Amino acid sequence: MGREICGDLGIAEEREWLVTNGIGGYGSGTVAGSLTRGYHGLLVAALRPPVDRRLMLVKLDETVTYRGAAWDLATNRWASGAVAPGGFVNIEHFALDGSIPCWRYACADALLEKRIWMEHGQNTTYIAYTALRAREPLRFTARAIANNRVFHNTGTVAWPAGVSAASGGVRVVTAGDALPLFLKLEGSAATPATELYRGFALPAETARGLLDRDDHIHVATFETTLLPGETVVFLAAAGDGTTAVEPEALARRRARDRALLSAWSGARPSGAAAAPGWVAQLVLAADQFVVDRAQSPGGSPGKSPGGSPGKSIIAGYPWFEDWGRDTMISLPGLALSTGQASIAAPILRTFAAFVDQGMLPNRFPDGATVPEYNTMDATLWYFQAIRACHEATGDDGLLRDLFPVLQDIIDWHIKGTRYGIHVDPGDGLLRGGQEGVQLTWMDAKVGDRVITPRIGKPVEINALWYNALRAMVAFAARLGEPAEPYQGMAARALASFDRFWNAAADYCYDVLDGPSGAEAALRPNQLFAVSLPESPLSPERQRAVVDACARALLTSHGLRSLAPSEPAYQGVCVGDQERRDASYHQGTVWAWLIGPFIEAHLRVYRDPDAARRLLAPMGDHINAAGLGSISEIFDGDAPFVPRGCIAQAWSVGEALRAFTLLDQAASPVQAPA
Fold first, then answer.
1. I want to staple 48 with a disulfide (CB 3.0 to 4.6 A). Which of 42, 52, 106, 486 is the partner?
2. Where in the numbering of this chain does the Glycogen debranching enzyme C-terminal domain appear (predicted)?
3. C-alpha dihedral over 541, 542, 546, 551, to 10 degrees?
């Protein structure tokens, strides 16, 4: 990106970068350098990986003095409406170097480069500055702006702060908080400061109806001289004590990027066409979501009960935790499609430790120690993730270890578990739901009101149930276990699935046997009755479903959650929390749905070229919001503005999985599924 983007504050603020550390911590901000969200910061540390996240180092306000003139690199918006400093005007170029955000600032005839990355496995952020071009030395000054609050903007500030000199840098300790922050700029003089900066304006939060003002603390000023061609590195680390600036830190980050791309390249089918560059960028983005999970019951921090490293997947940045549903849906794309199959088993084992009353957790709240179990589908997606993992790896040991867990899940669903989730003895279909509880992925809730309650027998739940039973048949046969009970239940569910067909509309009902009978609204959930490995629909009905979704729901960046012709349709997802939640699943486009749509399209039409064109617009989108990644949602109306999280696990995972399906379809050695 050149000055046409970087030099326009409004446009540059719409483009956000992200770096992560594999334990839930991250850094994120705008190309302009200004804060637009309460979640923005250079170091957001995860104290109990991958949760309990704290905003620690917020930003650096940098100035370069060169040939007697001062050049600002930083940009701040203030509640007064002022923009000061306005260093964005000096950004000549921005790019992602692999996973590393990289700026170039033009200061007269000097050119300064800035890079940001995190140390994998540590709450440590590095910011490197290089004088690429200069006729004489540059005087470099950085004012460190910090905090120590929870990463959600609650209107609090960690004040007062104690700042003291430590090993060439400063150690910052805030009131009532035991976790210090260590800051150091190599070769610099550090001057401690405790100055409260009030009134940072956060326009992205204004648009979302959230708290849009923030206060932070100027904790120290660092000054050094940067010679032509020289690089200096700023370090921010959470924890007690001091940390040295490691000269190999950038090399390690680059080596990790190369290893990720090499593993992906090695996993692709031979003879497939070369992948476009944006797919490789998504492979690097996929790694950002994979994290250690340190809260396995009965295990030590970072370990599962069996002693192996515990793993999970962050649902989205900057504000989501790890969710069971999102993890299981995104796992095949993030792990298997990228050649990282080795991380799939630890994730599946970690979640097995949390199965309770036959249910996977819905999510692990950031400030809590007990997971929430309000989900009907996360558990069923677990079967699909295990099936995909076993098909990719042939790991019978994993299958044997998890088979008793899966048996227990089936038993609980037969006899009944939380929220009325149980198999209906009348038809063998799975039903569930109760007033005031959201159980499917369409889970928006305003106060006590669930926007799409879907109480009864949702179509995708029963497509997943049928596939879970069929998976159990295959698993049992593989392990030499009795398969007959699962064969019988699968056959009954298959026969009863015919009830979902809405002959008048020529597509499926969304929910059966709800409080008001069948729900006939055109939604994308029926796609899973086509895209899952074993479809309960005839080929003719599969095509009708794909065609109905293509006509009314398909957009350039995913599928609408409700057809525009439906009375409840809302075409934009803007406003305060209540307004946004009310439209979240009432027309908003979800990027992750492009995966099942492409899979269903391939199954029905067997036209890889046509399906590939459906995925291509994601290559444009990765330059538009969360750079190098895919957003959570988009408006249902054109121009389909990206909304929600700037980087969403299942959006990235399903795009990668879809590309892999297309890759395989194009390979002469493999046929489409």
1. 52
2. 285-657
3. -10
Q: How far is CA 481 from CA 138, 407, 438, 474, 485, in A?
A: 72, 11, 35, 10, 11
pLDDT digits (tens, 9 = 90+) for 180-193: 999 999 999 999 99
- The residue with tokens 């515990």 is 310
Q: With both helix axes pointing from N to C terminus, report the angle between 324-331 and 378-393 in degrees, rounded to the nearest 10.
A: 30
Helix axes 484-497, 459-479, angle to 10 degrees: 160
Mapped onto helix, strand or coil, the DSSP state of residue 467 is helix
Contacts of 138 (CB under 8 A, 6+ apart): 64, 65, 66, 107, 110, 112, 131, 225, 226
As a whole number, mean pLDDT of residues 90-97 equals 98
Please state the separation of Cα 308 from the chain's center in Å.
Answer: 24
3-state secondary structure 27-72: EEEECCCCCCCCCCEEEEEEEECCEEEEEEEEEEEEEEEECCEEEE
What's the full length of the chain, in residues? 673
CA pair distance 363, 367, nearest whole angstrom: 12
d(CA 107, CA 102): 16
Q: CA of 245: how far to CAs of 10, 169, 236, in Å?
A: 35, 11, 9
pTM recorded for the entire structure: 0.95
Asked if residues 452 and 585 have their Cβ atoms less than 8 Å apart, the reply is: yes
- C-alpha angle 560/564/567, rounded to 5°? 120
Q: Distance of CA 579 to CAs 104, 207, 573, 575, 583, Å? A: 39, 11, 8, 6, 7
pLDDT tens per residue, range 405-463? 999 999 999 999 999 999 999 999 999 999 999 999 999 998 889 999 999 999 999 99
387 close to 394: Cβ distance less than 8 angstroms: no
Q: Is 552 helix (H, G, I), strand (E, B) or coil?
A: helix
* Residues 648 and 323: beta-carbon distance below 8 Å: no
Question: At a CB cut-off of 8 Å and minimum separation 6, what does 227 contact?
Answer: 131, 134, 137
Beta bridge partners of 431: 422
Tokens of 284: 């690097």
Query: Six-digit token pair at 108?
Result: 């007269």
Q: In what order do the strands lie in the sheet with 642-643?
A: 554-555, 558-560, 589-590, 633-634, 642-643
Instruction: Centre a 10 Å sphere on the Cβ of residue 522 and count the other Cβ atoms it contains.
Output: 22
Contact of 283 with 264, CB cutoff 8 Å: yes
Q: How far apart are CA 335 and CA 345, in angstroms?
A: 10
Cα angle at 621 between 92 and 32, to 5 degrees?
Answer: 30
Residue 248, sorted as left (phi over 0), alpha (psi -120 to 50) or beta, turns out to be: alpha
Under 8 Å between Cβ of 581 and 445:
yes
Give the closest residue to 355 by CA, choosing from 318, 392, 320, 324: 324
* 8 Å CB contact between 9 and 34: yes
How many angstroms separate the CA atoms of 38 and 424, rounded? 46
Kindly report the number of other CB atoms within 10 A of residue 86's CB atom. 17
Token pair of 562 as six digits: 């409700």
